[in-house]
Write a structure and sequence with these properties.
It is a single chain. This protein has 3 helices and 10 strands; from the N terminus they run αβααβββββββββ. The strands form 2 sheets. Strands 1, 2, 3, 4, 7, 9 and 10 form a 7-stranded antiparallel β-sheet that branches. Helix 2 packs antiparallel against helix 3. The N and C termini lie far apart (35 Å). The structure holds fe (ii) ion.
Amino acid sequence: MSQLGSVVSSPAALVDDLPTCPPAIHSYALAEYDFVSAVSAIFGDAELDRLGNERRYERFSRESDQSTDFHGLFYRSFDAIRPLDHRFVAAVAAGVLGEPFCFQRVPTFRIHLPSNVAVGEFHTDGDYSHPVGELNFWVPLTRAWETNTIWVETSLGKGDCAPIPRMAPGQYLTFDAVRWRHGNVPNETGSTRMSFDFRCIPMSRYSEGDGRSVNTRQRFVIGDYFETFPSHEGTA
Ligand SMILES: [Fe+2]
């Protein structure tokens, strides 16, 4: 049964659903966690949905979809928004997970340029050795709809990916990306989609394996790909 766009009112329900957590859209206080302004500042206070509209890249593949100048600038600048990211994870992600967890040290940046894709292929994160137990948080920084948003299969294992219902800054999506197939299609909206995503693992589901990130080659363990908050920040 498709649950796209359903709003989760009970955080505990998400944890109970793991590891087959379906896509669910949530809201957060954009004024309190103003990622749009913070990321726009990185790009010279640009309108994020206009970025890259005048440029044309070759269609990205799995190997090249993290390779643009936009990606480089975001990652080089991430220290400037790390405090905001930590506040968001410590409050918002913690509220969803409802138990101690570890989280992705540096979120993954996405830019979905017109007539191009943001990720090179449909996949499950399990295809890339991500461990079962992760919950993916997908956070759009622009409007995201139809061909410029993420597509996810309508039920686990069905493979029939469809666009997530329209989203905007102030919302985020959670789902079990390790098991649910997802990807994107060429962006025909004329509007750039920018987003970031990160993964959390409730500590009750955490174990150290041998898997490594396909892009950064980091191990999926605390101290490399993942980190935890010091206990004084209230989530450990
Ligand atoms: Fe993925």
